[in-house]
């Protein structure tokens, strides 16, 4: 399936077919998620109404890490199998990942002011998320610094693979160091310590953001493929 | 294998002797930055003594990034980097020999810079020894990371800012561990754990840099 879609034209056809459904799912889930967040989910006994920021903050933080992992996987495929589509996907995902990381930091700051009494602390989780933002920025700048896009993509792929060392540090920073940031409430290996009335809107919002991100990624990949086709036509016309 | 490596090392050392002015530029930059930090923080010797470790490390970090260009850019511009590859020298050995020479060249100025720092920042003997060992163990990782940033931006014009942007995230863990102070640590005790962490950093950085450096060099000379 994945290798079938690795053909750019086939990918465009696939994304054209799937895009409307992604939009519908996003609108549906986002509306339902916002309804749950604002009207159904109770305020926290300690944090009060500010807990609602979590429904945006947590999915953004998850996806900021997930997109970096996806970029690293694509980079691996690009360097080993020399596949152009892997480079295009990385190029499409990087700005989205950076935006989500920025959103995580901003929403975290807004939540931090009433909860911790400060907009920012040099806590392990916050600092490592900031480092992730710098990694994203580095990848975006590096891939756009070359006239030859393929070369920029290759260098960015190497940089993103080296940068993957940072991911476990971010993920387990709250467990390794005694930080202000609370440890993970939802874990794969144990039952979640979060109440179901809060867990449901969080999951709904996560899927809403997932479909939104997929939609944006598909649009970006499609435009990048078309841009490359235009570049090829232009260069053949010039020569 | 070892013969080839020593041949490369000899070549790098010869080239570096020709560029011995690097040591002067490095030392001047180091001292000027130290002066600027002192003016910025204020002449309070107690405060400066408390902050000596971050000051020295930040200056070292910036100066190594700025100086590292001399070791790679010249070879790239005059085509000898490409030539070495065509002659069959492995990319790992090219990078490793460059890293060793860079370390040897840049460690020389520290023999007088660190004692000078200890006078200017009021360090006692234990702090001086601790800082010296810190520099010797931490700078190889700094150098290796700077080589990667140089290789990544070797074909980019105006690459200095880009170098800083792409490489800073990788320096952060190193800076955290080199400048951190154990709350129970007094100025008379040397923290051995910190040195072990720095050796660990080096052992992690070395294979990553050699492997990614090889990939970049192959891409550069395509």
Which helices and strands occur, and which strands form pairs?
The complex is a heterodimer of chains A (239) and B (222).
Chain A: H1 2-5, H2 8-40, H3 54-81, H4 84-116, H5 124-143, H6 149-163, H7 166-176, H8 196-238
Helix pairs in contact in A: 2-8, 3-4, 3-6, 3-8, 4-5, 4-6, 4-8, 5-6, 5-7
Chain B: H1 2-18, H2 21-41, H3 45-50, H4 52-77, H5 80-86, H6 91-107, H7 110-120, H8 125-152, H9 160-179, H10 192-220
Helix pairs in contact in B: 1-6, 2-4, 4-8, 4-9, 6-8, 6-10, 7-8, 8-9, 8-10
Give structural notes.
The complex is a heterodimer of chains A (239) and B (222). Chain A has 239 residues and is an all-alpha fold. Helix content of chain A is 78%, strand content 0%. Chain B is an all-alpha fold and 222 residues long. Chain B has one domain. Helix content of chain B is 82%, strand content 0%. The two termini of chain B are 25 Å apart. The model of chain B has no long low-confidence stretch (mean pLDDT 82).
Please tell me how large the radius of gyration of chain A is. 20 Å
Total count of domains of chain B: 1
Fraction of residues in H or I helices of chain A: over 70%
User: How many DSSP E strands of chain B?
Assistant: 0
What structural class results from the helix and strand content of chain B?
mainly alpha
**What are the low-pLDDT stretches of chain B, counting only 5+ consecutive residues below 50?**
none
Number of helices of chain A: 8
Using a beta-carbon cutoff below 8 angstroms, give the protein chain pair with the largest interface and the number of residues from each chain.
Answer: A-B, 24 and 21 residues
Output the helix-strand order of chain B.
Answer: HHHHHHHHHH
Q: Uncertain runs of chain A with pLDDT below 50, 5 residues or more?
A: none
Largest sheet composition of chain A = none
**Helices and strands of chain A, in N-to-C order?**
HHHHHHHH
Shape annotation of chain B: elongated
Helix/strand-derived class of chain A?
mainly alpha
What number of structural domains do the residues of chain A give?
1
Mean pLDDT of chain B: 82
DSSP, total strands of chain A: 0
State the oligomer.
Answer: heterodimer
């Amino acid at each position: 399936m994945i290798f079938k879609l690795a053909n750019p034209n086939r990918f465009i056809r696939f994304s054209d077919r799937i895009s409307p459904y992604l939009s519908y799912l996003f609108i549906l889930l986002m509306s339902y998620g916002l309804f749950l967040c604002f009207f159904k989910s109770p305020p926290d006994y300690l944090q009060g109404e500010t807990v609602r920021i979590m429904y945006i903050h947590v999915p953004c933080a998850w996806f900021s890490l997930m997109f970096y992992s996806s970029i690293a996987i694509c980079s691996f495929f690009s360097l080993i199998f020399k596949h152009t589509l892997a480079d295009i996907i990385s190029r499409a995902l990087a700005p989205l990942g950076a935006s989500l990381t920025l959103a995580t930091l901003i929403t975290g700051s807004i939540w931090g002011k009433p909860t911790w009494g400060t907009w920012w602390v040099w806590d392990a989780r916050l600092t490592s998320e900031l480092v992730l933002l710098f990694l994203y920025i580095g990848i975006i700048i590096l891939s756009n610094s070359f006239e030859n896009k393929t070369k920029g993509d290759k260098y960015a792929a190497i940089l993103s693979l080296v940068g993957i060392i940072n991911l476990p540090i971010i993920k387990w920073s709250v467990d390794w160091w005694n930080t202000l940031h609370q440890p993970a409430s939802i874990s794969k290996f144990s039952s979640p310590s979060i109440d179901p009335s809060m867990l449901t809107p969080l999951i709904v919002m996560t899927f809403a953001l997932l479909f939104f991100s997929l939609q944006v990624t598909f649009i970006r990949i499609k435009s990048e493929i078309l841009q490359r086709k235009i570049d090829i036509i232009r260069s053949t016309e010039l020569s | 294998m070892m013969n080839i490596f020593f041949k490369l090392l000899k070549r790098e050392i010869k080239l570096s002797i020709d560029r011995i002015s690097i040591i002067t530029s490095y030392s001047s930059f180091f001292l000027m930055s130290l002066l600027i930090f002192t003016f910025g923080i204020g002449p309070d010797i107690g405060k400066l003594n408390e902050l000596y470790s971050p000051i020295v490390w930040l200056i070292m970090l910036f100066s190594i990034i700025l100086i590292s260009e001399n070791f790679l850019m010249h070879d790239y511009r005059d085509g000898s980097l490409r030539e070495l590859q065509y002659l069959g020298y492995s990319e790992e050995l090219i990078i490793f020999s460059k890293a060793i020479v860079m370390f040897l060249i840049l460690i020389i100025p520290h023999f007088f810079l660190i004692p000078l720092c200890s006078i200017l920042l009021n360090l006692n003997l234990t702090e001086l020894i601790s800082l010296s060992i810190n520099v010797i163990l931490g700078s190889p990782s700094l150098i290796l990371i700077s080589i990667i940033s140089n290789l990544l931006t070797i074909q980019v014009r105006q690459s200095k800012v880009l170098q800083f942007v792409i490489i800073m995230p990788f320096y952060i863990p190193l800076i955290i561990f080199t400048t951190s102070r154990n709350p129970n640590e007094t100025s008379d005790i040397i923290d051995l754990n910190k040195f072990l962490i720095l050796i660990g950093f080096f052992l992690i950085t070395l294979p990553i840099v050699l492997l990614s450096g090889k990939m970049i060099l192959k891409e550069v000379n395509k």
